[in-house]
Structure formats: C-alpha cells, structure tokens
Design goal:
Blueprint lengths: L2 E6 L7 H9 L4 E4 L8 E5 L2 E5 L12 E4 L4 E2 L1 H13 L8 E3 L3 E2 L2 H14 L11 H9 L12 H22 L7 H15 L3 E2 L1 H10 L4 E4 L23 H6 L8 E9 L2 E3 L12 H9 L12 E3 L1 E2 H11 L3 E5 L9 E10 L2 E3 L6 H6 L1 E8 L16 H14 L3 E5 L7 E3 L5
Parallel strand pairs: 1-10, 1-11, 2-5, 2-10, 5-7, 6-8, 7-9, 11-15, 14-16, 15-19
Antiparallel strand pairs: 3-4, 12-13, 16-17, 16-18, 19-20
C-alpha cells in the first residue's frame, strides 16, 4: 500500500488533527514531516480533548506508530513535557519514533526568534517565538544540531561553540542581550539524551521497509499550503515546506510511493499572524465565525483572523500539491447564516483574476469577488451521511468541490471523532 499525504490547504488550522485521527485507526504509521511546536492539533476523543503541538496525532491511536520525521525541528523540553502530559492521562507513548536526523531547537534559537521579531516592529512576520525559523536557518547554513548529536558530547559541544560564537555577537552587540554560555546549553541538552534515546531510530529505513511490507503510512503536515516557505504568502510564511513535496524530503519516502494527497479545507477561511488575507472579515460575521468556531490557536493561544471561503486559494492548493481529495471541516460552524458568501475570484486593479496572483503586490491588493449561496438553520452535527445534510448544505459542499478542483471525500460536522461524514474512503 503506497503512502498517503494529509496537509492543510489554506493557512493552517484547518482541522488536520481530526482528519489524521480519523485515519489513525486504519493506518500503521503517522509521520510528522516538517514544522515544530509552532503548529497545534486539537483532537477530541469521546469526552476527552487533546491539544498536540509537536507529536503526530497518531499517538492517540493504540495500533499506530507515531513518527517525528527528519524534516521536523524538535524542542526536547516541549517533547518531553507533551509526552509526560499524555502519559499522565493514560496514553501509551512507547511506540513513538524520532528521526536521529531531525534538528533541535535550542535556547539561543528561541531568544533570537523573539528579539528579532520585536526588532522588526511594524514589519514583524508574526512568528510564534518558539525558535522554529532560527533552527531551520541553522539547518540550511549547516550549523544546526541534530537529535543524534545529543549522544556524542564532543560533537555537541563543538557545534554549540560554533553556533554561539556568532550568535552571541548578535545578541550582545545588536540586541543588547546577555551572552548565552556554551556550558549552559550543553549541560541542559546532555540531560535530555537518556530521556529520549529509546525513541530515536533510523525512521527513513523503518518507513520504507514498512511500505515494502504492505503497511499503510500517513504523512501529516503542519501549518498549511499558504504558509509554505516556497509556495506561500512570502515572507509571511513558516520556515519549512508543508506542501506535498515536503512530505518526501521530510520523511525520506520517495514520491513514487505516494498514492493520495488529501487537502484539509475549512468551510470558511482563517489565518494566524501577519500577512495578506483577501476574505478577512473585520465585522460581526468575522466575530461570529471566531466565536462559534472556537478560532483560537492551539499552540499560540492567539485569536485567528476569520473570513469567508476562498476558492482561489483552494484551487491553488490543488495545483501545487497535486491534491486527489479534500476533507472539508467545520461545516457545522456555518449553520445559521441566511446567505453565505464564497470568494470565487479576485479584483486586482480592476481586473478579474481567478488564479492566485503570482506577484506579491497584486495579492496584497486583491479584493474578493463573491458569489452568495443560500444557508441553512438545521443542526447538522448528528448527520451520518451526505443525504442527512440539509439541501442547502449539500449544495454548498458541491459548489465548493466544483470551485476547488478536487472531490470532497469527507466532511466534518462537529469537533468529535465520530462527527464526520465519509463520502469516499481514503484507503
């Protein structure tokens, strides 16, 4: 069985955790392939609510092996805290695997992230301040520290010394902050070694062997397509590739082994942080979407910016990811609106544009062109099949499907694990 990729088709926060958890009972491995603890998933199992920041959602499925791939950046303190929190709630975390090639987030990455963002002032990007970007920057600059380095004190010390030689100059002379001591970092990180050693493995080998044996591997992205460092609304993006190509590089699984790419779409649109957002609502409708949808970041705690569904973005996600299916989430949040606008194109300096503008300035100036669809008032949280939905809700789903360019194979009608309508099986 080839691998499946599941990723966000908007600006993140689409409900990937729910989708991954839905599939978790049917797959053998769930792999996080990029990002760090700047992304969060909320998963509701029965009356229990779990907020996951770094761990793959598959950790809640007892027969699934959760994997943190080589493309992830790992804060070991956050990892151990999250594991301990799940263990205290009775969740078995012993199956977790972590790539030894994954890079580590250190205290100096976090410090640089925060002071740099403050220094930018009005030009700030809206990072989470968790050191994600600086860690990826060190990776690209070939001065990063990897998980495997925790098990060789000499290599760890050499790498920390090299990193702090330049970074302390920046912290002290540019930002007027105190220098960070080498011994301070090395001592803390050596203390993590024995606590995570049992989880570290050659995950690329394990995953490819599993695929050769006919096992099912689900590759789970963090953030979303429009936050991709190459294909998103640069520079208001994350520092990695949440798009489908990142699933290959971040896991070590080749593209020929991927059979389906599933995009998660919210029935409206949200984003966190700075940057352009054509359908953003700064009115009562935006407030209502935020309140009803519980739109607050799982990891950041920040209120999300809310707007109507943007079909231009959905078409773009279909194109750059090669999406085969959509999972539409939070359809229930739209219950109660008499009319629901959907953005079908943009007005850019008087010209109608139906695809995402390639030019950054054009996208910043884009104004949404809406078509209005009739809403519904019936409670849909108990719907078990597509035919159970009100006619107007069915029409809304079909309209989004046609505009977005890929079939909608599942619909979330509530936050719970069972509150999902499956139209076509993903497996």
């Amino acid at each position: 069985m080839p691998a499946l990729v599941l990723l966000g088709a908007q600006w993140g926060d689409e409900g990937k955790g729910k989708a991954t958890d839905l599939l978790g009972g049917s797959v053998d491995y769930v792999v996080r392939y990029q990002g760090g603890n700047n992304a969060g998933h909320t998963v509701v199992v029965g009356d229990q609510k779990y907020a996951l920041h770094l761990l793959p959602s598959g950790i809640l499925s007892p027969n699934c092996v959760p994997v943190i791939g080589n493309g992830v950046v790992v804060d070991p303190a956050v990892l151990l805290t999250e594991l301990r929190g799940l263990q205290e709630r009775g969740v078995d975390t012993s199956r977790l695997l972590i790539s030894g090639n994954a890079h580590l987030i250190t205290p100096y990455h976090q410090t640089l992230d925060k002071v740099t963002e403050r220094f930018l002032g009005k030009r700030r990007i809206g990072t989470t301040g968790r050191g994600i970007g600086p860690s990826y920057a060190d990776k690209i600059n070939r001065v990063g520290i990897r998980v495997q380095d925790l098990f060789d004190e000499s290599i760890l010390r050499q790498k920390v010394e090299a990193a702090l030689h330049d970074k302390n100059q920046i912290l002290v002379k540019l930002f007027n902050r105190r220098a960070i001591g080498v011994d301070e970092v090395v001592g803390e990180y050596l203390g993590y070694a024995d606590r995570i050693r049992e989880y570290v493995a050659d995950t690329t080998l394990i995953l490819n062997d599993a695929l050769d044996q006919g096992k099912v591997v689900l590759l789970e992205g963090g953030q979303g397509t429009l936050l991709d460092v190459d294909h998103g609304t640069y520079p208001f993006v994350t520092s990695s590739n949440p798009t489908a190509g990142g699933a290959c590089t971040g896991s070590g699984i080749g593209p020929t082994k991927i059979s389906r790419v599933i995009g998660i779409l919210k029935a409206y649109t949200t984003r966190v942080g700075a940057g352009p957002f054509p359908t953003e609502l700064l009115d009562a409708d935006g407030d209502a979407l935020r309140t009803i949808g519980g739109e607050r970041g799982v990891t950041t705690g920040r209120d999300r910016r809310c707007g109507w569904f943007d079909a231009v973005i959905a078409r773009y996600a279909t194109r750059v990811n090669g999406l085969t299916d959509f999972f539409l989430t939070k359809l229930d949040v739209l219950t109660g609106w008499e009319q629901i606008p959907v953005c079908v194109a943009y007005d850019v300096d008087g010209q109608r544009v139906e695809e995402l503008p390639h030019n950054q300035s054009d996208f910043h100036h884009a104004k949404p062109i809406y078509e209005t669809l009739p809403g519904w008032n019936e409670d849909i949280t108990g719907a078990k099949s597509f035919s159970d939905l009100p006619k107007n809700a069915q029409a809304y789903v079909r309209a989004l499907e046609e505009m977005s360019g890929a079939p909608i194979s599942a619909i979330g009608v509530g936050p719970g694990r069972t509150e999902t309508i499956e139209i076509n099986s993903f497996l």
